[in-house]
Amino acid sequence: MIKRLAGCIRQYKTLSILAPFFVTLEVIMEVFIPFLMSKLIDNGIDGGNMVYIRNLGMLLILATIVSLFFGVLSGKCAAGASAGFAKNLRHDIYYNVQNFSFSNIDKFSTSSIVTRLTTDITNLQNSYQMVIRVAVRCPVMFLFALFMAFQINHKLSLIFLAAIPILALGLYLIMSNAHPIFERVFHTYDKLNNVVQENLQAIRVVKSFVREEEEIKKFHGVSQDIYADFTKAEKILAFNMPLMQFCAYSCMLLIAWIGARLIVGSELTTGELMSLISYTMQILMSLMMLSMVFVMIIISRASAERIAEILDEKSDLHNGEQPVYEVKNGDVSFENVSFSYAGNIEKLCLSNIDLTIQAGETVGILGGTGTSKSTLVQLIPRLYDVTKGSVKVGGVDVRDYDVETLRNEVAMVLQKNVLFSGTIKENLRWGKEDASDEELIKACKLAQAHDFIQSFPKGYDTYIDEGGSNVSGGQKQRLCIARALLKKPKILILDDSTSAVDTKTDSFIKKAFREEIPDTTKFIIAQRISSIEDADKIIVMEGGNIHGFGTHQELLESNSIYQEVYYSQMKGEEKDEK
Question: Contact 562/556 with Cβ under 8 angstroms?
Answer without folding.
Answer: yes
